[in-house]
Amino acid sequence: MISIRTCIGLCAISALVTSVVPAVQAAESSTVTVREAWARATPPGIRVGGGYVTVVNSGTQPDRLIGASSPLSDKTEIHASETTGGMARMRWLEKGLEIPAGKEVVLAPGGVHLMFMGLKQPIVKDEVVPVTLRFERAGEIAVELRAGPIGSLKSPGAISGGAGATHSH
């Protein structure tokens, strides 16, 4: 005969397993891959920095990059650089960035990028910047951005001939 304590314990385990399984299945069914993740090193005293990634959506439905965060900054936003009448400016993409089905989207210097605001310390060449990207469908994806030189226009992987970091969900 099963005691009441054993029955309660089995019910609790059953509830826990049931609530965890959908999250695992959702992560396994996601089709977003993040690669070539990098950032630019920043000079001392500068409180903003840029991050760049290539996002690949191998699925049949579009996804949307809706946010990002990093312990290195107070705020991380998705921005687009624009030049109008010879004046360059940045614009926050309040609704995020669409990642079309079956396509890749490159976040690069001079275009769409991650903007680290309120840096808590400088981004140092060859160090890693941890970032969590938030997608509408794929959920959160943790990536590590390797820092290239100040002012670099290419990822450290491209500079050294390597492929850069890759992470998928």
UniProtKB/TrEMBL annotation:
Pfam families: PCuAC (PF04314). InterPro entries: LpqE-like (IPR007410), Lxx211020-like (IPR058248), PCuAC_sf (IPR036182). Residues 1-26 form the signal peptide. Keywords: Signal. It comes from the Bacteria. PANTHER family: BLR7088 PROTEIN, COPPER CHAPERONE PCU(A)C. This is Copper chaperone PCu(A)C. It comes from Achromobacter mucicolens.
